[in-house]
Amino acid sequence: MNHGAMMPPTRGRTLMRSLTRRSLLGLTTAAAVSGLAACGGSSSTPGGSDTTYSAAPEDLTAELRYAIWDKAQEPAMQKIVDGFTTKFPNITVSIDVSEFGSYWTKIQTEASSDSLPDVFWMNPPNFQLYAQNEILMPLTSMVDGGALAKENYTPAVWDLYRLDDVQYGVPKDNDAMAIWFNKKLLKEYGVDEPAEGWTWEDLRASAEAVVSGSGGDVYGFSGPVNSAGNHSWYNSVHQAGGYILNEDHTACGYDQPGTVEGVTFWRDLLADGLSPSIKQLTDTSFDDWFSSGKLAMAAGGTWQTQPFLEALGDDLGVISWAAGSAGNQVCVSGLSNVMPAVSKNPQASMAFLEYLGGEEAAIAQAESGVVIPAFNGAADPFYDSIETLDLRVFEDAIAQGFSNPATKNTKEWQSVELEMLLPVFTGEAEVESTCEELFTTINNLLAKE
Hints:
Blueprint: H1 29-39, E1 62-68, H2 74-87, E2 91-97, H3 100-111, E3 119-122, H4 124-132, H5 140-144, H6 155-160, E4 162-163, E5 166-167, E6 170-171, E7 173-174, E8 177-182, H7 183-188, H8 200-213, E9 219-222, H9 233-239, H10 257-271, H11 278-283, H12 286-291, E10 295-301, H13 305-312, E11 316-319, E12 331-332, E13 336-338, H14 346-356, H15 359-368, E14 372-373, H16 380-383, H17 392-400, E15 402-403, H18 410-425, H19 431-447
Parallel strand pairs: 1-2, 1-3, 9-10, 12-15
Antiparallel strand pairs: 3-13, 4-5, 6-13, 7-14, 8-10, 8-11
Helix pairs in contact: 2-15, 9-10, 18-19
């Protein structure tokens, strides 16, 4: 669910080219942003006059639609809904589950006709575009009224859904990265299981031993380098001392030596045959390679815990990322719950948001073993949910991680970024010259935001 700027299918990979409450779906991103500024709701009274938070009475009556995109989380979301409707028996909440791609198509279409769900999931790549154009309800009155408090949540996730000092999202979960490994494969090819404190060099040596020992039948290490930077090279970039965007997200860091080194790390893995090729990863996702026993180690996230466990059982292991010259920090992200600026049921929607952002809902998420809640102190049931796995590696990753890089038009510059880096990963372009070109190109795009 997910980390930021780019995401694999279940956590946020979508090319959002337009969004408006009128018929602007065919426009380019730049034109859509201009159109949204004209078509969005009033910033002073978004969604009408009755938008100020007040505690909902227990007999409040409403019918709410809650839109999500992850089928694996539906049972936990239903448990949360059941808890909420116990407190508010006259409110009904229907869960609307879509596949990730169709979810965003539906959200764009509904935004154009003021028919958005009462509450719905939001991810970092799309947040600023929706918020800037007044599609989302500011939650200032909930913060001022004590229904939401920053200190209750992971700071990085809270800040991801804050724009111009206004909070728009209620943090739902934490995403963090680690390295999953297949114990059986490592043992079969005489490779020791990785231990905390391992390095890039250790990872590469293990990957080489697997490929050599299997005669090339099994790959050593991979990740979604063909589609998701924040789950692959963004991590190695920071681990080498570079960065994708500077601290205030106004300039990119593709001119930094550490950034070049972090991209080179993945280029070399691919060039040396330690990972499936870009074409192979496009045809068959890295997680399918790993689940099928054809990949010994995989860069993955918290949301893959249950799928990988189902595939490998007790042969599954997890470890913190291997360290580069500047550490082993990884991208930290997460989803939030939001409501539309034009709301048919503002008081009931805010009551549901308040419940979704509370400890009871957070514990229900943690107990599902699918995601780590963003509510502080509620994650222990997740970390302790599987005796054979040390899931607290994710706790450490969240504590020392960096925020997912995002701007108003994240999808625009990330599309260019991926398009330019794929030839590097296929061996058709040089790392240094491509990074130089990316530095200029992305900075030009950022200057236009």
